[in-house]
Design a protein that fits this description.
The protein is α/β, with parallel strands linked by helices. It has helices at 46-53, 76-84, 101-112, 117-130, 147-158, 177-194, 205-211, 229-233, 238-245, 247-261, and strands spanning 8-17, 20-30, 35-39, 61-66, 69-70, 86-89, 165-169, 197-201, 214-219, 222-227. The protein has a domain at 103-162. It has 10 helices and 10 strands. The structure holds adenosine-5'-triphosphate. Adenosine-5'-triphosphate binds at residues 17, 22, 40, 42-48.
């Protein structure tokens, strides 16, 4: 792919299940290194979009290019290579309940590589630390962790193969506000330090205002607008206006304004 080509480029995407059309003529670009937040009503097709991008769906029409490669027509070898460059945190975390946190991360490491078990264990501990978990979490089972720790364990697993893109499906859902804010900061830190591109599905307005560079609105089967928040907030559409100018949207705007006003200059 060329330097200025988006890491994800979607054109004319159509997804449907039987008679139900979920996406129609959907276009979206995701730029290298950005955190893009994807919002839309429940059932608008955000998760289906994510699954299509990573090759888990079967679009009826359109083009999805990931790292410059057409997803639908990729060879198996190329698909494996692309999979390694995509870390995915699914909505429910999807950890293996019978494996410890370290073993969950190790599974992801050994899926694609034949590595010495001792090195696998050390790498797993590194990813666990990167996800902000204490090292004693490594030997715990998912059932022994809090909701926030489960998210971090799943994040550690999605970072296992040093991905270029991190796909997060509602990462802060179910977390208390303090846990959610800490998770947002972790994503921001990871993006800044590892240079990740982050595709983030969320209903969390605070997340949008705190860490997203751009926001894409999925409604009426397509992306209505994908731009910085100040542009999206004023976009002339009833759903967008309800979402961003409703009481929760305005509260998130105020919180973001207060927080940026209290930051030292240069932040
Ligand atoms: N495998 C499938 N078979 C049939 N219908 C599906 C399938 N997957 C998703 N759908 C339908 O596609 C629509 C979009 O689902 P999707 O999960 O992408 O919504 P969403 O925007 O992520 O919603 P939420 O915010 O509630 O998670 C829904 O109506 C859903 O029932």
């Amino acid at each position: 792919m060329t330097g200025d080509e988006p890491v994800i480029r979607i054109r004319g995407l159509r997804n449907q299940f039987g008679e139900q059309v979920v996406h129609e003529n959907l276009d979206l670009d995701v730029r290298r290194g950005e955190i893009i937040g994807v919002v839309g009503g429940s059932g608008s097709g955000k998760s289906v979009l994510l699954r299509s991008i990573i090759g888990l769906g079967h679009p009826a029409a359109g083009s999805i290019r990931l790292f410059g490669e057409e997803v639908a027509t990729m060879s198996d070898a190329k698909r494996g290579m692309i999979e390694r460059r995509c870390g995915v945190l699914f909505q429910n975390g999807a950890l293996f309940s019978s494996l410890t946190v370290a073993e969950n991360v190790a599974v992801a490491l050994t899926e694609h590589h034949d590595i010495d078990p001792d090195i696998v264990h050390r790498l797993a501990l590194l990813k666990i630390a990167l996800a902000g978990l204490p090292l004693d979490a490594a030997d715990k089972f998912p059932s022994q962790l809090s909701g926030g720790m489960v998210k971090r364990a799943a994040l550690a697993r999605s970072l296992a193969l040093d991905p270029d893109i991190l796909f997060l499906d509602e990462p802060t859902a179910g977390l208390d506000p303090i846990g959610a804010a800490a998770f947002d900061q972790l994503i921001l830190t990871l993006r800044n330090s590892l240079g990740l591109t982050v595709f983030l599905i969320t209903h969390d307005l605070d997340t949008l205002y705190t860490i997203c560079d751009r926001v894409a609105v999925l409604a009426r089967k397509r992306i209505l607008v994908a731009d910085s928040l100040d542009v999206v907030e004023t976009f002339d559409d009833p759903w967008v206006q309800d979402y961003f100018q409703g009481p929760r949207g305005r509260a998130a705007q105020r919180a973001a304004a207060t927080s940026s006003a209290s930051q030292p200059q240069g932040h």
